[in-house]
Amino acid sequence: MAEFTMELNDEQKEVRDWLHGFAADVIRPAAAEWDEREETPWPVIQEAAKVGIYSLDFYAQQYFDPTGLGIPMAMEELFWGDAGIALSIVGTGLAAVGVLANGTEEQIGTWIPQMYGDPADVKVAAFCSSEPDAGSDVAAMRTRAVYDEAKDEWVINGTKTWATNGGIANVHVVVAVVDPDLGSKGHASFIVPPGTPGLAQGQKFKKHGIRASHTAEVILDNVRVPGSCLLGGKQKLDERLARARERARAGGGERVKNAAMATFEASRPAVGAMAVGTARAAYEVALDYAKTREQFGRPIIDNQGVAFQLADMRTQIDAARLLVWRASWMAVNGRPFTAAEGSMSKLYASETAKTVTAQAVQILGGNGYTREYPVERMHRDSAIYTIFEGTSEIQRLVIARTLSGMPIR
Ligand SMILES: Cc1cc2nc3c(=O)[nH]c(=O)nc-3n(C[C@H](O)[C@H](O)[C@H](O)COP(=O)(O)OP(=O)(O)OC[C@H]3O[C@@H](n4cnc5c(N)ncnc54)[C@H](O)[C@@H]3O)c2cc1C
């Protein structure tokens, strides 16, 4: 087990500086344009692929870094550049992790390369779980997958929503109900290969922030996929469902629930790190501005009212990063999340990003309210962190339940 450290080692510093250079030289200068266009920034993704940032290898390397700091450091730097573009670059990772977590070696080898494409022809992937009536309440999912034994095919019907890269993805990973009596334990994940008939993009959402990232509905109308597209395979699914039915009969189910919770706790710090990146970016702009903007014959930072805001902003950002790094280290080293430390890190970092970017707009005054300065965009972007991957209210529920052991609602 790696000791917890707050110091990046030389190799990590090198990667951080390389990512920071890409964020500063390629992502940040393109941010305003793609925010206005509200389109996937394919040329930037392609640049990231050329230098090796948009690839499974890169993420796997960071993910398996035993200090746990690889992923948070990478996320913070890319999202420091711009949240919308960075999400376009890392969004495929969400689908890839779905396959890595549940897929067989053959499925991993077949589908993950098709999710990324190659630098000459980049592709993206989408992870489709949320539905119009199943957001925070995942168990309310209605998309149904039925097995056609005669053809060894699964037939999927339903409507997914809020899918990052939905409809433009080469590969879609779709979560569907296979046994409606088992609630969320009756769900399974499927690969929908490129060009499968019946899968179509529904409405593309016009969003408040992260506008360079494509978000859309995905309609599944009698989508037929081969049996080999069930992640993990039929035998594993049948065994899992049998265990869940047995536990339901015995009135249990805690162990399965705990395993799912551990997965969420492990992935949430990454979203916290994205939020730290956006918060740090806005804080830096505000600090520079406060030192140079003069009113009443002196820089505005000379006023305690402004200087104290900056002191609070930096304190909250550093506190958020420490929570994120702690949770990430715990995840990589298999430490039990006895106080829902993953949820804590996501909750605190995402709320910090909203507060800090709002303060940055205030410190820039009228300029902060215009698109001439980046803090206006960062403030809009920051609102996503308290919503996706579990809202702040859901994080508080998870923390409160973990601390109390009570079924708090
Ligand atoms: C830009 C964007 C990208 C996304 N990308 C993806 C993606 O790639 N794949 C995917 O599957 N999903 C994705 N999502 C979906 C996202 O995870 C959901 O929006 C989120 O889980 C919240 O669900 P909801 O929007 O239905 O809100 P709801 O669940 O309807 O919540 C509405 C409000 O009620 C509150 N609330 C709900 N239940 C409780 C409770 N028990 N106690 C207290 N408060 C409660 C919530 O906190 C929230 O404030 C994305 C969403 C957005 C906006």
Automatic annotation (TrEMBL):
Cofactor: FAD
Keywords from the named record: FAD, Flavoprotein, Oxidoreductase
The protein's name: Acyl-CoA dehydrogenase family protein
Pfam families per record: Acyl-CoA_dh_1 (PF00441), Acyl-CoA_dh_M (PF02770), Acyl-CoA_dh_N (PF02771)
Coiled coil: none
Similarity comment: family membership: Belongs to the acyl-CoA dehydrogenase family.
Domain (Acyl-CoA dehydrogenase/oxidase C-terminal) ranges: 259-403
Keyword Flavoprotein: yes
Residues annotated as domain Acyl-CoA dehydrogenase/oxidase N-terminal: 9-115
InterPro entries reported in the protein's UniProt record: Acyl-CoA_DH_CS (IPR006089), Acyl-CoA_Oxase/DH_mid-dom (IPR006091), Acyl-CoA_Oxase/DH_mid-dom_sf (IPR046373), AcylCo_DH-like_C (IPR036250), AcylCo_DH/oxidase_C (IPR009075), AcylCoA_DH/ox_N (IPR013786), AcylCoA_DH/ox_N_sf (IPR037069), AcylCoA_DH/oxidase_NM_dom_sf (IPR009100)
